[in-house]
UniProtKB/TrEMBL annotation:
Keywords: Methyltransferase, Transferase. CDD domains: AdoMet_MTases (cd02440). InterPro entries: Methyltransf_11, SAM-dependent_MTases_sf. It comes from the Bacteria. This is Methyltransferase domain-containing protein. The keyword Electron transport does not apply. The keyword Transferase applies.
Length: 273
């Protein structure tokens, strides 16, 4: 993956935030957010900073699970924060544009750094983990999740397979390459150890995606950076990709409501102290 491709993979712009919030959050993000927020709540933090907050799925769950905590929610993409601020009007949350690899906070400022499905997009994950360790107090925790391999999440797997089949010369492989591309547990451990946080607790969690073929096709093809990859493709259009995805999902699951398995990986890494 070249630098231009990596930059496109992290873009949440244009109409993406609205579709992301309306369709993708209830489909695949709310359940993992509740699970990760409970992990954070068990740590009883007073100060939490969330990186790669997106439109606030984890933020909402943290507000419920950690009612006494002060939460600073950050994201690299201001349009996502704008959508989050509109969806989550709460005086307890401070919304701030920030790069997870260069956080604008003092050393030892937080008890927990939380990140839902953001580490896969970091251009330098070790640097991102080091930044998390820097802003954590002694004994603080970096709590994050990443998607497991794409075959364990049936809806994106069906969409990915259909789009790759439709683009054999230049496959549109964003879903397997980026959101589902950072699942190898030894690699995650190595990255954390290099960042100074050895001995992480890592577990796989199974969940369920609920959607319809039309909503899932639109959510993934128009509400994620997959849309940007499609827009840069030589032959594929967003409308065509959405139709291909919907047809594949209908053939695989049938035309009615979908309940499909999904799996993610939860990580808790502590600083010394």
């Amino acid at each position: 993956m070249d630098d231009a491709e990596a930059e496109r993979d992290a873009q949440f712009r244009g109409g993406i935030p609205e579709v992301y919030q309306r369709l993708l959050v209830p489909m695949i993000f709310e359940e993992p957010a509740e699970s990760l927020a409970q992990v954070v709540a068990d740590l009883a933090p007073g100060e939490v900073v969330e990186t790669a907050a997106g439109t606030g799925a984890l933020t909402v769950a943290l507000l419920r699970s950690c009612p006494g905590a002060r939460i600073t929610a950050t994201d690299l993409n201001q349009p996502m924060l704008d959508a989050a601020g509109a969806a989550v009007p709460n005086e307890v949350v401070t919304w701030q544009q920030a790069d997870a690899l260069d956080l604008p906070f003092d050393d030892r400022a937080f008890d927990v750094v939380a990140c839902q499905f953001g580490a896969m997009f970091f251009p330098d994950r070790v640097l991102g983990y080091r930044e998390a360790a820097r802003v954590l107090r002694p004994g603080g925790s970096l709590v994050f999740n990443v998607w497991d391999r794409i075959e364990t999440s049936e809806v994106p797997w069906v969409i990915h397979a259909a789009l790759v089949t439709a683009t054999p010369e230049h496959p549109v492989d964003f879903l397997s390459r980026t959101p589902h591309g950072y699942f190898h547990v030894p690699r995650i451990r190595d990255d954390l150890e290099e960042a100074g946080m050895p001995g992480a607790t890592i577990r796989a969690v199974d969940g369920t995606s609920r959607t319809t073929p039309a909503e899932a096709a639109r959510a993934f093809c128009q509400g994620t950076p997959l849309r940007v990859a499609i827009e840069h493709h030589e032959t594929l259009t967003v409308d065509d990709a959405t139709a291909i995805a919907e047809d594949a999902l209908t053939r695989h699951f049938g035309p009615g409501p979908i309940e499909a398995p999904t799996r993610w990986i939860e990580v808790v890494a502590k600083t010394g102290g």
